[in-house]
Design a protein that fits this description.
three-stranded parallel beta sheet, globular, about 290 residues, 2 domains, alpha+beta, Rossmann fold, Dihydrodipicolinate Reductase, domain 2, nine-stranded mixed beta sheet
Amino acid sequence: MAYPTINVTADASDVVSSTKIDAVAIVSPVWTHYELTKAALQNGKHVFVEKPFTSTSSQGKELIDLALQRNLKIMVDHTFLFTSAVKKIYQLLDEGTLGKLYYYDSTRVNLGLFQHDINVLWDLAPHDLSIMDYLIKVSPEAIVATGEKHLNDYEDVAFMTLYFPEKVIAHINVNWLSPVKVRTTLIGGEKRMLVWNDLEADEKLKVYDKGVQITNSEGVYELLVNYRSGDMWAPQLERVEALSKELSYFVDCVSNGHEPFNNGCAGLRVVKMLEVASESLRKRGSMVYL
């Protein structure tokens, strides 16, 4: 099978204005990702593949091994990792501004678009799973997922809870039957809390100097709860087009032999979480350990 190269034009601000690389972009239904990516790798092409990476973790592992054998790059389209908002959240966590992470709570709902080969978890949750994988930096220990099918054979409303080490908990609400579109994430830390509303034109991020501190009083079973309520500020975010940044990064990785941080292994971690969530769905919300 013959594949064309892809032409990627970087931003005018970049050093390279136009670069041609020997690569293939896989933008197709999830069930086709494995065969198309495998054929591209076998033909010596680097691959930029839409999320989720594959339909199963075994497929993902095979593709990663094949890419390593042929010294080729796989990059999974986790576009949100290239947004200014996620980059800023990463910085705030890395600098300790939020303190010890407590929770990640996301609502990603809208009316449609209904898929006919995957459920709402596989369609919408990869966005938040890739963001959590990037921010939290460790894999969850267990997952609980619930949902229901209303219009076809695939869940159109679903909820996913992930239990991470160090008492970090995450929750994802995804829905194709919402009357309104909502893209809101709450991130709670020991020192500060953050709200990310991706639909806001300005002030997408708001950081709140709020928190709770508990101390023991003289009585062994008595607790003193102190609530802290300080200022709120909205960090300045660079206005960037995430997909353009992502493609420029892909070109750089291929051209200079760098390994993308959103590589096949990152895509595989998301697929594993989706597989475990699917198992929990089948078991009507039973906890499944990774």
